[in-house]
Amino acid sequence: MNGILVLIPVALGLGLIGLFAFFWAVGRGQFDDLDGAALRIFIDDEGEQPREGPDAAP
Questions:
Q1: What three-state secondary structure class fits 43?
Q2: In this predicted structure, what is the pLDDT of residue 34?
Q3: Looking at per-residue confidence, does 26 or 35 come out higher?
């Protein structure tokens, strides 16, 4: 019984922290452009040159 008296407030506190973090992220615009990141993989980086030197991949 004593464990429940500790676990319930801990669970409610973690839930409120998660809810606060979600609303903070929405307010900062983290979820504004959901398709941009998914489509960015199809963009070719033509200006990027292959690396040369001792740390270049063989």
A1: coil
A2: 81
A3: 26
CA 54 to CA 27: how far, in whole Å? 45
Mapped to the 3 state alphabet, what secondary structure does 5-42 carry? Answer: HHHHHHHHHHHHHHHHHHHHHHHCCCCCCHHHHHHHHH
Confidence band of 52 (pLDDT split at 50, 70, 90)? confident
Backbone angles phi, psi at 16, to 5 degrees: -70, -35
- Write down the residue that tokens 């993989």 correspond to: 41
Residue of 30, 29, 25 whose CA lies nearest to 17: 25
> CB neighbours of 57 closer than 8 A, spacing ≥ 6?
51
